[in-house]
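The instructor's notes for this session suggest beginning with a concrete chain rather than abstract definitions. Hand out the sequence below and ask the class to guess, before any prediction is shown, which regions might be ordered.
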Amino acid sequence: MRPGVGRAGGALGILGAMAYDEELAHRIREALQDRADVTEKRMFGGLAFLVQGHMAVAASGQGGLMARVDPADSERLVDDAHIHRVVMRGRPMDGWLRVDPAALDTDDELAAWVARGVNYAQSLPPK
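After discussion, reveal the predicted structure:
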C-alpha cells in the first residue's frame, strides 16, 4: 500500500452498500505500478486512481470499473454490451464510462481500460 493511502474497510452500513471489488483494485494497482504520479482516493463509493490529480479509473462501488475517457469517444466506446455511460443525478455522462466485470476478465482487457483512463487524465491540466 502506498504511504498515506488508507485501506477501504469496515462495516458496509445499515443499507448494505456494496463495497468496491478489492481484487479489481489490486489488479488496477498492478497495472499502474510503474507510474509515480498515481494516487488513490475513495470517491463515488469506490476506490479511484488519480493521475496528476484527475481521476483516471476507479474500482466502482456499483461493480466493475469506472473509466474516465475523452467525452468525444463515449458514443463509440459504449457500442458494447458491457460498456455503459455513468449516470449521475439521473443523467448519462459523456466521458465517464462503467465497464462491467465481464469485460475485464483478462489483464490485457483491464490494461486497455486503465490506459484509456490514464491517457485522458494526462491530457488535462495538472491540478
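Then share the key points. Residues 1-16 have pLDDT under 50 and may be disordered. The beta strands are 38-43, 46-51, 54-59, 65-68, 83-88, 91-99.
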